[in-house]
């Protein structure tokens, strides 16, 4: 099932939740909508599901107008952040719900329903919980049951709204891997919303980065990380050093000091220089584009994180390899291995 | 007297959390000297005895003052039986109507956003803030011989005032808030996600309501119905205005109690009153049980 969204606009009062969104999702893809809260990603997901309606724009499934159908007819599986399991029903009945409410003409008989529910509970590896009530399950279990319930209707599309948002870090990581392998197994076109970049980059085939109701970039996880299209994407994904610079005739200035950085093709004016923390190479004083003094060093994990006060007043954080230990007070030269300049 | 009991039952709302907090706070504040504590508790006990327990005892004492035979005889009077029948009928009609109205109103308020919602919520509370006598008078103004629809009703030979429809209307109006009030906070707290999930799974509106919404609020519905019923059976003011006091026809139990009392038939008056008092006691017990279920509903919520 392909999903196509064209020029979608949705306003809540004067706040534009979606401000002209275009998106195409191919059959069998697993796409992440990534953005800070208020970026419109959940609104987009709810409109695709039919739980909200756009002010203008188009949504089509396989070329068919989806907005002509209500949520009920769209055959879309939706998984909610807070599970939304039916609290008065057992796990079994929760999963069976979608099968039981089908019109009589197409409804399966009781034994096929039982078989199908059993199959789904096996799929999410929770068949032993069939007789429990949602309140007796852990968060991770509830979310897996919610997923099984959504899959029961053999949805054409699976939509997940911050599926792991309410879970603790360890369970999130497990479920992430599990979701990816599950998608591999059932291969249904899926979109999930997240504000967690790690989750988006790790699980999705393609990442859609959103901000303020607009799509900033669509690309593979590698693309959005390595080749961010806008200042927002560079700042939002991965950890970046951000410096306000002036560009004039191919010369980049920080304060009034020219930096030895090439800036071909960058329009003149106020700009922002982005460098990944680990792309800032440490050398002897005078060796790089920047000069500074180490203020603070934290040694943990594979890199040492140093706070460096640049001579023109800015303070930045860099990740340096641990082969040469930095010490507080040391003067260093810094040279960005890779950098991007975006017009501010 | 009996009406007071029924009214005091109906005024509290199912706010379990607030109650629990009050209990917790009470424990923290238990630092006063022993004498003060005893004094305060004594005042409370004395107050309850005089204003709640004593009236209840008096009702039953008076009812049985000439022995059980006189009590049974008083209740078997045709007039008494007619009043009991009418009261049950009116309660059934008004509880039935308010169940439907209350469900619809609470559903609309809790599950949808629309303009004028705050106004609608205040409107639902109107019967609580208006004196029942005024509520009754409104219907007299509307349907009385000199009222807006009086002429039309007379031409079509429809009797509303001084008949069952008028009594049922007045009672329904006065008891309107109970079901809606019991359900609105409950439904607001539960949100709309389960309904959205049901619809995205292919359920129709009715299937969603009967399979998801209603099971989630059933204890709240029973709670509202219980309080609505207690008030409907005990309603005096509004009914008194519209009933016309036709003996054996339009007297409900509370009205009959007053009439019999004014005629110095104390045993008969208190016999009927004792039935209303028993209704109040049963309501209290049922209310306690329902509140426990409502509390459990709160506790087992997803966190």
TrEMBL record, chain A:
<dbReference type="Pfam" id="PF12857">
    <property type="entry name" value="TOBE_3"/>
</dbReference>
<keyword id="KW-0547">Nucleotide-binding</keyword>
<keyword id="KW-0472">Membrane</keyword>
<feature type="domain" description="ABC transporter">
    <location>
        <begin position="3"/>
        <end position="237"/>
    </location>
</feature>
<comment type="function">
    <text>Involved in beta-(1--&gt;2)glucan export. Transmembrane domains (TMD) form a pore in the inner membrane and the ATP-binding domain (NBD) is responsible for energy generation.</text>
</comment>
<dbReference type="Pfam" id="PF00005">
    <property type="entry name" value="ABC_tran"/>
</dbReference>
<keyword id="KW-0764">Sulfate transport</keyword>
<dbReference type="GO" id="GO:0005524">
    <property type="term" value="F:ATP binding"/>
</dbReference>
<comment type="similarity">
    <text>Belongs to the ABC transporter superfamily.</text>
</comment>
<dbReference type="InterPro" id="IPR008995">
    <property type="entry name" value="Mo/tungstate-bd_C_term_dom"/>
</dbReference>
<dbReference type="InterPro" id="IPR005666">
    <property type="entry name" value="Sulph_transpt1"/>
</dbReference>
<dbReference type="InterPro" id="IPR003439">
    <property type="entry name" value="ABC_transporter-like_ATP-bd"/>
</dbReference>
<dbReference type="InterPro" id="IPR027417">
    <property type="entry name" value="P-loop_NTPase"/>
</dbReference>
<keyword id="KW-1278">Translocase</keyword>
<dbReference type="InterPro" id="IPR017871">
    <property type="entry name" value="ABC_transporter-like_CS"/>
</dbReference>
<keyword id="KW-1003">Cell membrane</keyword>
<dbReference type="InterPro" id="IPR050093">
    <property type="entry name" value="ABC_SmlMolc_Importer"/>
</dbReference>
<keyword id="KW-0067">ATP-binding</keyword>
<dbReference type="InterPro" id="IPR003593">
    <property type="entry name" value="AAA+_ATPase"/>
</dbReference>
<dbReference type="InterPro" id="IPR024765">
    <property type="entry name" value="TOBE-like"/>
</dbReference>
<protein>
    <submittedName>
        <fullName>Sulfate/thiosulfate import ATP-binding protein CysA</fullName>
    </submittedName>
</protein>
<keyword id="KW-0813">Transport</keyword>
Automatic annotation (TrEMBL), chain B:
<dbReference type="InterPro" id="IPR000515">
    <property type="entry name" value="MetI-like"/>
</dbReference>
<dbReference type="InterPro" id="IPR035906">
    <property type="entry name" value="MetI-like_sf"/>
</dbReference>
<keyword id="KW-0812">Transmembrane</keyword>
<feature type="transmembrane region" description="Helical">
    <location>
        <begin position="158"/>
        <end position="180"/>
    </location>
</feature>
<keyword id="KW-0813">Transport</keyword>
<dbReference type="InterPro" id="IPR005667">
    <property type="entry name" value="Sulph_transpt2"/>
</dbReference>
<keyword id="KW-0472">Membrane</keyword>
<feature type="transmembrane region" description="Helical">
    <location>
        <begin position="266"/>
        <end position="286"/>
    </location>
</feature>
<comment type="subunit">
    <text>The complex is composed of two ATP-binding proteins (CysA), two transmembrane proteins (CysT and CysW) and a solute-binding protein (CysP).</text>
</comment>
<keyword id="KW-1133">Transmembrane helix</keyword>
<feature type="transmembrane region" description="Helical">
    <location>
        <begin position="38"/>
        <end position="64"/>
    </location>
</feature>
<comment type="function">
    <text>Part of the ABC transporter complex CysAWTP (TC 3.A.1.6.1) involved in sulfate/thiosulfate import. Probably responsible for the translocation of the substrate across the membrane.</text>
</comment>
<feature type="domain" description="ABC transmembrane type-1">
    <location>
        <begin position="84"/>
        <end position="285"/>
    </location>
</feature>
<feature type="transmembrane region" description="Helical">
    <location>
        <begin position="84"/>
        <end position="107"/>
    </location>
</feature>
<feature type="transmembrane region" description="Helical">
    <location>
        <begin position="119"/>
        <end position="146"/>
    </location>
</feature>
<keyword id="KW-0764">Sulfate transport</keyword>
<dbReference type="Pfam" id="PF00528">
    <property type="entry name" value="BPD_transp_1"/>
</dbReference>
<dbReference type="InterPro" id="IPR011866">
    <property type="entry name" value="CysW_permease"/>
</dbReference>
<protein>
    <submittedName>
        <fullName>Sulfate ABC transporter permease</fullName>
    </submittedName>
</protein>
């Amino acid at each position: 099932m392909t999903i196509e969204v064209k020029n979608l606009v949705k306003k809540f009062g004067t706040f534009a939740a979606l401000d002209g969104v275009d998106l195409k999702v191919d059959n069998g893809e697993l796409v992440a909508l990534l953005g800070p809260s208020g970026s419109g990603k959940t609104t987009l997901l709810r409109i695709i599901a039919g739980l909200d309606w756009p002010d203008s724009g188009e949504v089509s499934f396989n070329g068919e107008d989806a907005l002509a159908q209500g949520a009920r007819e769209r055959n879309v599986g939706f998984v909610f952040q807070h599970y939304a399991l039916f609290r008065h029903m057992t796990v079994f009945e929760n999963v069976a719900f979608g099968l039981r409410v089908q019109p009589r003409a197409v409804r399966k008989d009781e034994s096929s329903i039982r078989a199908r529910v059993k199959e789904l509970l096996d799929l999410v590896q929770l068949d032993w919980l069939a007789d429990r009530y949602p309140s007796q399950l852990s968060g991770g279990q509830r979310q897996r049951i919610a997923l099984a319930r959504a899959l029961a209707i053999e949805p054409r599309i699976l939509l997940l709204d911050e599926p792991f948002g309410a879970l603790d870090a360890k369970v999130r990581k497990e479920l992430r891997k599990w979701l990816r392998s599950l998608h591999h197994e059932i291969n249904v076109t899926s979109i999930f919303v997240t504000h967690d970049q790690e989750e988006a980059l790790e699980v999705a085939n393609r990442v859609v980065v959103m901000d303020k109701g607009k799509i900033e970039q669509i690309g593979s996880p590698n693309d959005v990380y390595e080749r961010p299209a806008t200042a927002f994407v560079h700042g939002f994904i991965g950890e970046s050093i951000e410096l306000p610079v002036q560009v004039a005739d191919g010369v980049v200035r920080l304060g009034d000091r020219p930096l030895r950085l090439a800036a071909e093709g960058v329009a003149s004016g106020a700009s922002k220089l982005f460098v990944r923390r680990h792309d800032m190479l440490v050398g002897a004083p005078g060796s790089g584009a920047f000069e500074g003094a180490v203020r603070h060093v934290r040694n943990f994990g594979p890199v040492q994180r140093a706070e460096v006060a640049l001579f023109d007043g800015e303070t930045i954080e860099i990740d340096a390899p641990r082969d040469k230990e930095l010490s507080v007070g040391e003067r260093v030269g810094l040279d960005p291995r890779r950098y991007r300049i975006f017009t501010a | 007297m009996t009406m007071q009991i029924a009214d005091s039952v109906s005024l509290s709302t199912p706010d379990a959390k607030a109650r629990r907090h009050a209990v917790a706070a009470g424990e923290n504040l238990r630092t006063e000297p022993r004498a003060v504590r005893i004094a305060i508790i004594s005042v409370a006990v004395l107050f309850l005895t005089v204003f709640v327990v004593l009236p209840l005892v008096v009702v039953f004492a008076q009812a049985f003052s000439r022995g059980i035979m006189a009590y049974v005889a008083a209740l078997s009077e045709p007039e008494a039986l007619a009043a009991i029948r009418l009261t049950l009928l009116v309660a059934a009609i008004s509880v039935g109507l308010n169940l439907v109205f209350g469900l619809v109103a609470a559903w609309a308020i809790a599950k949808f956003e629309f303009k004028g919602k705050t106004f609608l919520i205040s409107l639902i509370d109107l019967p609580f803030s208006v004196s029942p006598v005024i509520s009754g008078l409104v219907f007299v103004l509307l349907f009385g011989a000199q009222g807006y629809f009086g002429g039309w009703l007379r031409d079509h030979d429809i009797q509303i005032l001084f008949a069952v429809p008028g009594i049922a209307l007045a009672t329904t109006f006065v008891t309107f808030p109970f079901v809606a009030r019991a359900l609105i906070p409950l439904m607001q707290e539960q949100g709309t996600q389960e309904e959205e999930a049901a619809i995205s799974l292919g359920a129709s509106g009715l299937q969603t309501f009967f399979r998801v919404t209603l099971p989630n609020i059933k204890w709240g519905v029973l709670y509202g119905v219980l309080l609505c019923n207690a008030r409907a059976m005990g309603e005096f003011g509004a009914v008194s205005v519209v009933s016309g006091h036709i003996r054996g026809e339009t007297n409900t139990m509370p009205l009959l109690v007053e009439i019999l009392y004014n005629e110095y038939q104390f045993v008969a008056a208190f016999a009927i009153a004792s039935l209303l008092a028993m209704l109040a006691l049963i309501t209290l017990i049922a209310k306690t049980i329902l509140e426990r279920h409502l509390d459990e509903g709160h506790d087992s919520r997803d966190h």
